[in-house]
């Protein structure tokens, strides 16, 4: 600042260290700062480039300067522009060293931290107990917000079962369970003797039928043929009843 500013401030009842409020009326931007020296030319003040960017000022623009009394800060929340700042081995020590060059902080400003030939820009997201605080000889709690370029890792999508599996299940025919069939297999006697086979249509019966036809002659053959049932089915009275009796014996044996 120019020497005339120091003469004016010395005649006023102000708080030390000297702090100032800067205002850009054209852009309605407000910030706060301290003073380094009073050796500038009259009518001219010199600001760091990063502060001119915060104030949206160009070289030669008009800025209003007013003395201000700021409370000591108790809390500040910072947000780095890039996540590279988190890769620093000890960011707390770097911030403590860098913030020694600052006398105050204002919510909405952006400060620059130089480390290892890199420039890290950090936004002042929140300050307490007011929107502008003094950080000279004070213990201030520092909190970090996620960097501006930080992206949360994507969660794996839940696996969706393919539609082929149900289709294949539908195409496969359902296997029918075997049904229970009673009285299957071969019957055996407990005494080891062979089973009696049921009587069938024997040749002797056929011979008797043929002999009957021969004895009675042609007339009797015609009458017997008329009394016979239609061809294609054979019915035997005595032999059939005997077969049914044997079958009942076999069934009774299995039931016992």
Name the assembly state: single chain
What percentage of the residues does DSSP assign to strands (E)? 15-25%
Terminal Cα span: 125 Å
CATH architecture of the domain at 72-150: Roll
Task: Describe the model.
The protein has a four-stranded mixed β-sheet. The chain is 30% helix and 20% strand. It has six helices and ten strands, in the order αββαβββαβββββααα. The protein is α+β, with helices and mostly antiparallel strands and 256 residues long. It has helices at residues 3-10, 49-55, 91-99, 164-171, 203-227, 237-255, and strands spanning 19-24, 29-33, 64-68, 71-72, 75-80, 104-106, 110-115, 118-128, 132-134, 141-144. The termini are far apart. Among the domains are: 1-69, Beta Barrel (Barwin-like endoglucanases), CATH 2.40.40; 72-150, Vcp-like ATPase, Chain A, domain 2 (Roll), CATH 3.10.330.
Provide a concise account of the structure shown.
By secondary structure, the protein is of the alpha+beta class.
List key phrases describing it.
256 residues; alpha+beta; Barwin-like endoglucanases; Vcp-like ATPase, Chain A, domain 2; four-stranded mixed sheet; three-stranded antiparallel sheet; 30% helix; 20% strand
Topology:
Elements: H1 3-10, E1 19-24, E2 29-33, H2 49-55, E3 64-68, E4 71-72, E5 75-80, H3 91-99, E6 104-106, E7 110-115, E8 118-128, E9 132-134, E10 141-144, H4 164-171, H5 203-227, H6 237-255
Parallel strand pairs: 4-9, 5-10
Antiparallel strand pairs: 1-2, 1-3, 5-8, 6-9, 7-8
């Amino acid at each position: 600042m120019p020497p005339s500013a120091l003469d004016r401030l010395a005649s006023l009842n102000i708080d030390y260290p000297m702090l100032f409020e800067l205002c850009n009326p054209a852009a309605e931007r407000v910030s706060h700062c301290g003073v380094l020296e009073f050796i500038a030319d009259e009518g001219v003040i010199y600001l760091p480039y990063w502060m001119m960017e915060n104030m949206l000022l160009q070289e030669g623009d008009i800025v209003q300067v007013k003395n201000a009394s700021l409370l000591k800060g108790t809390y500040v929340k910072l947000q780095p522009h890039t996540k590279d700042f988190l890769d620093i081995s000890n960011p707390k020590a770097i911030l403590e060293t860098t913030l020694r060059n600052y006398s105050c902080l204002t919510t909405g400003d952006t400060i620059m931290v130089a480390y290892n030939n890199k420039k890290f820009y950090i936004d002042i997201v929140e300050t307490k107990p007011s929107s502008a605080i003094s950080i000279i000889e004070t213990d201030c709690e520092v909190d970090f917000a996620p960097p501006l370029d930080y992206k949360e890792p994507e969660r794996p999508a839940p696996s969706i079962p393919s539609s082929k599996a149900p289709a294949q299940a539908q195409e496969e025919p359902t296997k029918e369970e075997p049904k229970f069939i009673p009285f299957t297999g071969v019957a055996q006697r407990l005494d080891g003797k062979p089973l009696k086979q049921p009587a069938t249509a024997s040749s002797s019966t056929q011979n008797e039928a043929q002999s009957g036809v021969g004895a009675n002659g042609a007339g009797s053959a015609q009458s017997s043929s008329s009394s016979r049932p239609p061809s294609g089915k054979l019915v035997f009275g005595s032999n059939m009843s005997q077969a049914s009796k044997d079958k009942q014996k076999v069934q009774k044996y299995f039931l016992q």
